[in-house]
Every structure is written in C-alpha cells, then in structure tokens.
Amino acid sequence: MTDSSSSSPASPRRTALDATHRALGATMTDFAGWDMPLRYASERDEHLAVRGRAGLFDLSHMGEITLTGPQAADALDYALVGNIGKVAVGRARYTMICDAEGGILDDLIVYRLGGQEFMVVANASNAQVVLDALTERAAGFDVSVRDDRDAYALLAVQGPKAAEILTSLTDADLAGLKYYAGLPGTVAGVSALIARTGYTGEDGFELFVGPSDAERLWQALTEAGAGLGLVPAGLSCRDTLRLEAGMPLYGHELTKATTPFDAGLGRVVKFEKAGDFVGRAALAAAAEKAESAPPRKLVGLVAKGRRVPRAGFSVVASDGSVIGEVTSGAPSPTLGKPIAMAYVDAAHAEPGTAGVSVDIRGSHEPYEVVALPFYKRER
Amino acid sequence: MNNPQELRYTKEHEWLSTAEDGVATVGITEFAANALGDVVYAQLPAVGDTVTAGETCGELESTKSVSDLYAPVTGEVTEANQDVMDDPSLVNSAPFEGGWLFKVKVTDEPAELLTADEYTAFAG
C-alpha cells in the first residue's frame, strides 16, 4: 500500500503552537512552507465536531499585512477589487487582489481596525505575492505597508458552540459582534483582535494574538470548551468544511488564470467605486463575457456512488467528451457521500443536468450537478 | 506501534496471516491506516480474482488521497471483506481484526516478507 500524495523534504516553518500540536499527537503536513496540523485523530470526527459543537484551529500560517496612513483606504481601493473605503471601522470585507489582466492573485479578508488602519489577511501560499503587490501599488499613496506575518498567531474557534466558549473567556461584546466584524479585546487575559470570521460555514471567531500568547490562549480555549465538545481540528477538516460551504480555495477554484467572474464571485468587484483600480478594464470585459457568453461555470457535484473525485479529474458528458474539470473534491462527512466543485461548460452547468460523470482513474462515475453551497447552517 | 507477532508484513504496509488450509488473510497495518486518515471507500479484489505478489489489486480511498493496495502474495481470492466495503472506517478502527481486506489461497509468496520486528523497525 503506497500513499500517492507526496511530501516536501524542505524544512518548513513552525507555528508558536508547534509543541502543542505534537503533544496532542497531530499528524503534521507541509502546507505552503509551514508545518501544520493536518489532523489530530479522525478528520471526519473533527469535521462533525465543528458542524455540531466546536473546533479549535491553529491558522498561524495565514499572512497578515497592515496598512496605515491617511491614504490607506485609497491605496486599498486602488490595489484591490473591493470598495474598501466604504468599510466601517470594526468591520471586515471579503475581497480579492487581481493583476492587470483581471486574474486573481489571492482572495483576502480586510479588517478595518481604524480610520487609517487596515489589516489584510492573505493565504499563506500567496502572502509574499500580496505583500509585494500591495507595496508596489501603494507607492503613490501616503500610506505605509507593514509585513505583520510574524506579529500574529491566529487561532480560530468555529462551530455552533464557539460563541458560548468564547463568552466565558472575555468581557468583549460578542453578542454585538456581527459576522464579518472585528474588535480589539482581551480573551483569557490575552490581548487579541477578535473577529467573527471563518472558513467553515459555521458561526465562529478568529483570534489574532501575539505569538508568545498563543499557547496560553489555546489552553484556555481548550479548557473552556472541554465541557461543550470542543476538539482540536486540523487543516484536513478545514478543507472539507469549506468545500461543503461552497467556499473557494486559492490554487483550486481561484487561480491567476481565473477572474472573479469565472468563479461566480463577480459581486466582489466594485466597479461603482470612484477611482481606477488594478484590473478594472480587464474585469469589465470579463463581467460582460460572463453575462453574455460564459465559457465555464463553477458548480457543485454530488456523487451517486462512493468514489471520490479529486482536483484535476475530468468532468465528462454521457458521450464521453470532456466538459469540465474538478477543482476540489472530498468525501463529505455531512452529506455522507463524495462531493466536488468543478468548472463545467455552461451548457452542462444547470443544476439537475443529466448525464454528467467524473472520470475517476478511467471509470466514469455518475454525478449530480447541484447549486453551491452543499451545506448551509441554520441561523 | 503494536504489530502482532503472528503476522508477516510487506514494505507496502500490508499484513498477511499464516495460511490455514492454504488460505491467508490480508489487511493493512495500523501504521498505514493512521497515515491514510479516515478510509471512506475500499475497492477490493473480487472472489475468484487472481492476485500477483507486488502488483496492485485494489485501492483504498481516504479523505485526502487514494492509495493502491498491493497483493503481498500470489493466489486466488476466496473472500473480500463485505463489512469493510459497507463500512470502510473498520480499516481505521480495527486494521488487524475486523478491518481485514481479503483472503487469498496462496500459490506463491515472495521471500522478502517481513517479521513483526522487521516491519516495526522499517515503519519506525
């Protein structure tokens, strides 16, 4: 029996919680140059814990970049596709950074920490690209761009019990903290930026803290969550959680070769904002094309059988012709069957389209085309 | 890692029981099951199939990857574990017991099968 996945021999970076993960018996994996917990025990159990109770994640690999100065908002409005100047202090926005051709360089969350202060959170794999692009694009503005990747550890508590767990450790007004909002506070005696964001499809919080405080906060959260079913959760279940929630992952659904419109996320591009922004002309053309003659659409696929589609597998029509490509696939713990996201020719992209299969190592396995997301929590 | 003494092992992380009436049971080791993560789908050789030592004879699919299953010996498959096909998580919960994969009537076996101690040293 041979595992077909490979690992890199280069020595990856370790987070402030590395010793904790090892003490917990985590299986570690190299992810974007970081040695990260893949899972602690069963990834399926971790997934179900987040859906039903709560999971605790170390996401310290994420890349934080801080912009401060009188023109911080203007610089971000020029550098990103979103309308960042309109974001209120204490709120956050999901947005993207594109190149001049409209290709996605990364998807981001931008937190407005003050009138003249923003924190951009990039994917670990793209943090350097984003830092370089922001630095270059901000050059004509009165703003300073700071690499804060080493300034923060990031812990996330996700799941329906997340608020209850966190409430027991902080005086911060969590009830008043809306989804996609963030406020500075103290959690278990540790100074933190408390954000109601996540990548799981559940309610939850992301806590940005100094690396030297990470261990103390992890232990406090573990103790506070012990009676409520909180478990440590690794990147493996994070991936299946976000997939069920229909959330794109850079390098899979989002790449430099795709525009936000290709990914069905054109709504993040705010043409109505006043000034120019990088990619505006190309994105306007992409928007028009997506409206009039979309080439492929991002859809959900649900297996009728039990074999699991993986990124890169071909989607085929009943005559065997290739009509698309899987970008992410996994067994869905919530649905109890394999699911995938795939770019599929527009003619085959309507939910319910008959005769769609995935080529799984030569065998055409039948799949149902569905609208995303696969899973939506009850509110 | 507790690898039962009475079994023999391959470097592909399969185990093989001592044959009774020429029929041996095959499974994957606890080490392999842990490395795979949650097994969600098992494609096992069918009864009557001839498997050849060192060649693929099925696959195990987990959350993160798919892995080929190699036959540790040559012979004819006499039984595939229906319980594992119905509930592949048995491979994780009981790799040396209820999570066995198939039984084979051995006609030939390679010389390089490992003892438990050799396998434990190999798997680390």
From TrEMBL, chain B:
InterPro entries per record: 2-oxoA_DH_lipoyl-BS (IPR003016), Biotin_lipoyl (IPR000089), GCV_H (IPR002930), GCV_H/Fam206 (IPR033753), GCV_H_sub (IPR017453), Single_hybrid_motif (IPR011053)
Protein's name according to its UniProt entry: Glycine cleavage system H protein
PROSITE patterns in the cross-refs: BIOTINYL_LIPOYL, LIPOYL
Family named by the database record: Belongs to the GcvH family.
Residues modified to N6-lipoyllysine: K64
Residue stretches making up the Lipoyl-binding domain: 23-105
Cofactor note: Binds 1 lipoyl cofactor covalently.
Keywords: Lipoyl
Function: The glycine cleavage system catalyzes the degradation of glycine. The H protein shuttles the methylamine group of glycine from the P protein to the T protein.
Subunit structure: The glycine cleavage system is composed of four proteins: P, T, L and H.
Species, as recorded: Streptomyces varsoviensis
Cofactor dependency: (R)-lipoate
